[in-house]
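Priority: low. Protein: Peptidase MA-like domain-containing protein. Input follows.
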Amino acid sequence: MSRLTGAGEQRGAEVIDEQGDTVPLPVVPPDDHPPQPLVRKLPPAFGPIVKKVALGLAICLVAGAGYAGLRQIADAPADPNSPVAQPPQTSTTPDEAAEGVRRAVAGEAVLQKMADAVENDNRTEFLATIDPRAAEFRAAARTIFANLTNLPIGSFTLRYVSDDTGALTPDRQAELGGSESWLAQVEVSWQLAGYDTKPAREMLPVTFVSRDGTTFAASFSERFVAGQRRPIWTLGPIDVAKSEHSLVISLGSESDAKTYLSVADRAAESVSEVWGKTNWRQKVIVYLPAKQAQMEAILGAAPNTYTQIAAVTMAELDTPQVGAPVRIVANPKLFEELGKQGRRIVLTHETTHVASTATASPVPLWLAEGFADYVAFTAVPVQDESAAKELFKAIRAGDVPATLPTTQSFAASAKDLPQAYESAWLACRLIAEREGQSKLVKFYRAVHASKSSTGLADAFKSVLDMTEAEFVVEWQKYLKRLAGV
Ligand SMILES: [Zn+2]
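Result:
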């Protein structure tokens, strides 16, 4: 049994590749050797690989967070395009509003000290903002500070967005003590120097407590809302490995980070060979969680959503936009099982999404996924019979696809998901075989850059000199020929 499906993505914040059933893949020796017509079977040690896809929408954290309390603080969002939604308006009395503003000012002051301490690399000042009575959080804060020191942080800001006076139970408030305690939602923006052109953003729930006239932070994780993403540096001690093209941030071991560095570097090189070196920054950031739960926290997903997922490409923002910081989040357990070539295929596929900014692109899914698999299988060639197994089976049974795969056919639950990937990959390969690889890239770019609703049709005409319908006829013939019918 062997089969490889493509990988998936969504139009919103993240591109998701999911591992499903298991298959050994025949692979020809890549890279170090020129592509060979001879395909050799992999040793049994080569692990299973199948990618499925989960489609979803970008989660708007704030909309789901149900804020109450402070509505409008004096300072407007620093960035008018900030993805942070305004909390819903409810009526508050002037006294309540004034109290809210007072808390916001006190909270903001703590956050400013904290951000300054990160900027100035001053651990003592950072820890001075942490509640001396919150022993557990102080330990976590030490880790967070060490993590931030470990990362090439270019900018780091914390912005008080809203508070929720009803969020802390009386018991919790009693436990915190002090004259006052409350929970606020804080936007953290952080940029990795040399990698990010725009900062990553998450919302952190910050618990504040005031005692003896001083306000402290007492937690970063209270009442986390389902679907709320968490910055990787809040999840445990990280190890960071850096190379020319890659930054691997591991919640596991240093050796893990180093191992994946070379795979990510090769993936970046493979993508550059097709996509070009000058058309992207050639920088890949890979997150390597040690546990499933950490992966879910990074992605803002419900528990066990991603047990079968090999890797996810996500924009670390809540709204898709060009230039958003994009990370590949690996599932270390499944990555281990994939084996060396499988890891390269998955990382090359994901890196193609990174290079082509697939998290903020108008290209149809068949083109995004087909192209990513085209690049991956160009770097690590796989026998057609394996890589298009389900598709060939369907065609041999007389079921030739009538159209290019639709968006719906890439949904995780789609019945014919493997065929969608396989046929999308072969559509891209047909373009490359007929017109040359550079035409395929040109076609992709034309669709990607188009602002028009007819971008795809226009690119078919201007780049390939045919209509989509004409292409589909050619593609159907090609698929039948490959399937031997
Ligand atoms: Zn994909």
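The first helix runs from residue 61 to 65. The two ends are 21 Å apart (CA to CA).
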